[in-house]
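Researcher: Here's the sequence for the chain we discussed earlier.
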Amino acid sequence: MNLEYFISKRFLKENKKKFSQAAVRLSVLSIALGLAVMILSVSIVTGFQQSIRTKISGFDGHIQISKYDFNNSIELPPIDRDLGLEMLIADHDGVKSISTFAYKGGVVKSGKIVQGCLFKGIDGSYNWESFEDWLVEGEIPNFNDSLKSYKILISKEFSQKLALGIDSPMLMYFMQDPPKIRKFTIAGIYESGFPDFDNKFIFGDIRQIQKLNQWSDNQVAGYEILLDNFDDMDLQTKWMYDEIDYNLKALNLNQRYPFIMDWLNLLDTNVYFILGLMILISGIGMIATLLIMILEKTKFIGSMKAMGASNRSIQKIFIYHSIYLSIKGLFWGNMIGIGFSLLQIYFKIIPLDPSTYYMDAIPINLNIVHIVLLNLGVLFIIALMMWWPSRIIAKIYPVKALRFE
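Model: Thanks. This is the structure I predict for it:
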């Protein structure tokens, strides 16, 4: 067995009433609480980012391909479907789904209540994964039939404002020349918790928009693509831009919603600050504990030097001991941080106001990779911080140390 490691283990079996034991407990506690705070900070921030990105991509996809022009209207000009391009994108690594879409502005009237909206026309290939989680009543309409569907999906906000429920008829006025009116039936009601989108979108059959705009069955406003990994979005956008025709454009969420995406990215700065602060506090606690142990073990250090032990060897004894205490703190920190995260995931013990935070509870993204990296990073940095104060051992002389009281 390594001599330094063996001696450091003997330290743990010494008298528990010594003053250094109080410092040891405090340093272990500081590491445990520091790691717990770091786990919660990373889990909450990444969970919040993931939740917002999922909500936005659920409405607009990660990438949209549409006609390249200078029209700023929400109603996009038509393009002809390209089945070869659709198959190429659908089969590309990292692409979850591709579907066609079109937008049409309208006004909904129910009794004396009038509400503006954006009718989003989609087809049977649309990815409803997010809406399956958001569905609060009814069912998601099916647009796979050969006949044009009059079923729609509206938000809970719309249903409450218009006092409409499942299977209720709803009139929608489309402002064009001449104006057109369509009567739809509510098939399902969803609630994403994102008011900016819930108050705007109504989902229906894209063939309704094709008929209203006098488009052919082969014409759509564009393609909406969902990806497996949000972090690949910029690379996937660049690849798609190289594959599409010169008169088309591919825009991702970062380009379509720059303010929201920049705001989410700014949250990373807060996490880095918290991580740095917690590591600093934990490291300072361990440095103080190490200095106390060195002071308490002055006679031991003198004896070791008198027997021929090198400064480096004695330093290792104290660093091994500090690393053991750090691992003990990390263990309890993981228990606290992961335990609290699981409670929040399954029981939502800390709720939020959806109108302010876009979700009903604090979101948690418990990623094992993040947890492992946090543990290794904290252990590595504390071990580095221990090396400098341990150099004080070189200044302890055997004669003076053996006389030390």
